[in-house]
Amino acid sequence: DKLEGKQLAPETRETGIVAVGSLVGKLCQQKLCGLQVVERGVETILRGLRGAKEEPEVVIHLLALGNAMLPETIPTLLDHAEDGPTAVTAAATSALQRFPVPDISSKVKRAMRRIFHQKRKSYDKTCRLAAAEILLHNQPSPMDVINILLATSEMETETATFLLLKVQNSLR
């Protein structure tokens, strides 16, 4: 019904969008991205994201994109990760965490460094931790590890301990 443009109850629509993202992701994993229904699903999610006026609507569409895990949507996720309000930034960084290592480019890493080190604006702790995790789980440079370790001295004990454990795990 959603793909046909029918109006649905908000809860049904939200669940449907997230499910469409999951379905698109599963079909693409099976090398069926070229199917017309998959392309319509992706376009429905992206159109909904572009037309979303309220923060919860944006978050739902970002969750759907995260479920789809399509490399071509990474620039869209990056835009929302860096420039959105807290919930939007959290949803976008969370979606980026799901992508495999080959899809995490130097552009993604630069954006995650800006988020972690709060270069453009102040970010929520959860977003900063997600950015650090993306850096640490995707072939971190020695400088990334050093900078994350240095940053822990300015963090709350729990957050610093969490990051130190992440660094230890990535070094292993």
TrEMBL record:
Gene Ontology terms: biological process? lipoprotein metabolic process
Single GO MF annotation:
phospholipid transporter activity
Entry GO CC: basolateral plasma membrane; endoplasmic reticulum; Golgi apparatus
**The Vitellogenin domain covers which part of the protein?**
11-153
Which Gene3D superfamilies does the UniProt record give?
A: Vitellinogen, superhelical
What SUPFAM superfamilies does the database record attribute to this sequence?
Answer: Lipovitellin-phosvitin complex, superhelical domain
Protein name as annotated: MTP protein
**Species per Swiss-Prot/TrEMBL record:** Mystacornis crossleyi
Q: What is the lineage of its organism?
A: Eukaryota, Metazoa, Chordata, Craniata, Vertebrata
